[in-house]
Amino acid sequence: MTYRFGAARFAVLTVTVLALLLSAVPGQALELPDFRGIVKEQSPAVVKIIVEASSRGPSQIDEQEIPEFLRRYFQMPNPPQGPQQERMATGSGFIISDDGFVVTNHHVVEDADLVTVRLSDRREYEAEVVGLDPRSDLALLRIDAEDLPYLVLGADDALEVGEWVLAIGSPFGLDYSVTAGIVSAKGRSLPTRSRENYVPFIQTDVAINPGNSGGPLFNLKGEVVGVNSQIFTTRAGGSIGLSFAIPVNVVRNVVAQLKEDGTVTRGWLGVTIQNVDRNLGESFGLDRPRGALISQIASDGPASEAGLEPGDIIIEFDGESIETSADLPHVVGLIAPGTEVEVLIVRDRKEKTIEVEVGGLDADDSVDQAYRNGDGEGERGGRLGIVVEEAPEEVLSRWDLAGGVVVRSIQPDSPAAEAGLQPGDVITAVGASPVQSLEDFSEIIGGLDEGASVPLRLIRRGSPLFIGLRLED
Predict the structure, then answer these.
(1) CA distance 243 to 215
(2) Which parts of the sequence bind substrate (predicted)?
(3) Residue 366: how many other CB atoms lie within 10 Å
(4) Active site residue 213
């Protein structure tokens, strides 16, 4: 038997079935959030930031970033040419106290000659830059006004993945635009414009575009849970549903310090770290890949004074679990210098707790040169499938090494090739055994068991690195 339905009857039937399904599942479709109250109550405290600058320094919305069709639609002139031309840019921000303190992004006001804050009622004030923090991409401004509307910062750890959030800002200069979405993830490690990753970003699918930077991200209580900072865009500069906000715990910490001192001091450990992959985890005796592997320690730094060593894997810091190396800067950076904390590490396949007094973050020089070529007779590390030679004195001096061997060549399909060794790598340790000469290296490699998994400590292009290597059975 064949049933025939007309288009209209089929549409009515579809709607009826959907209505029945939704009514049978309590809470679905009937409890979608209503953002009108939040927008009405909170938008008066959201501001537009207008920046005038005479250089090409970074700023939030250069008119070059605006898609051509939008530029034509709003009759925006082409941006002036030349490195010293006066330019204007816009961003967003929000008031955090009734006496005129305003939060925005560092990159919005960086290199500004004049910063103007425009309120929702179109009052404008010239802003004083109280303090800047490029590491978190936050800035604190102040305007000369009183009895202003202001926003409340939410609880530090209350936000959950899947929760509804709302953004208010000025994308492409369009004042007080409202967009909404959900929290897609937390703790994203992304470099800021200063190339550092001290911020565990909130990822959302809220539509954020150039000009939204510095604006608030709200929860459904109308509390600020983040400051919109970064986006992944199309080539035209538009949103693709990947936006990132600075979490409120970072905002609260940075703003308090900027208000008090005009600068920000972060916790500092004095280590270079790397992630632990499956091979490294196995070679260090971990049950699964986790933690932050210390590949180098700054002399006279907090880690060195506490007795931490290269090869230690930090799996917990001040009670916070460290699942990846990116987690460690997020935790350490929020700890006040001078605080004593417990650090749980894995050393020699055993867990150990060490007390560390956290230091203050200072500038740290890094070596950026690589050892390329050299002379000398090489020796073949047969079990690994490499040819090595003793590191020249020039290399040892340049990188402050006590000794090591340089990888000259690697055999295809060898354990070394599979582990990712490269010509020019300087091997300074195999497992817990330091390598200071060819003799040391040969003796250590010769004593390894078949099928053994062992970490190698390297210097690659001036940077320390651990690689997990498995010998053939």
Answers:
(1) 12
(2) 52, 107, 137, 211-213
(3) 8
(4) yes
- Considering the domain architecture, whether residues 133 and 223 belong to the same structural domain is answered as yes
Q: Take residue 309 and report the two structure tokens written for it.
A: 């060593």
Find the CATH number of the domain harbouring 338.
2.30.42.10
Any known ligand binding at 212?
yes
Token pair listed for 291: 């933690």
- Give domain status of residue 27, yes or no: no
pLDDT tens readout for residues 422-470: 888 899 888 888 888 888 888 888 888 888 888 888 888 778 888 888 8
Phi, psi (deg, nearest 5) at residue 256: -60, -40
Query: Is 321 tagged catalytic?
Result: no
Q: Per the structure, how many domains does the chain have?
A: 3
Domain span at residue 339 reads 267-360
Is 213 annotated as belonging to a binding site? yes
Task: Give Cβ neighbours of residue 313 (< 8 Å, ≥ 6 apart).
Answer: 276, 284, 286, 290, 291, 292, 293, 294, 345, 346, 347
**Model confidence, pTM:** 0.66
**DSSP characters over 402-423:** S--EEEEEE-TTSHHHHHT--T
Domain boundary among 215, 241, 261: 261
Catalytic residue selected from 137, 312, 327, 440: 137
Residues 198 and 321 in one domain: no
Mark whether 272 and 248 lie in a shared domain. Answer: no
Containing 41, the helix (H) or strand (E) segment is: helix 36-42
- Judged by average pLDDT, the poorest of 16-30, 93-107, 264-278, 424-438 is 16-30
d(CA 113, CA 137): 18
Q: Which residue's structure tokens are 């002139």?
A: 77
Structure tokens belonging to residue 69: 């069709």
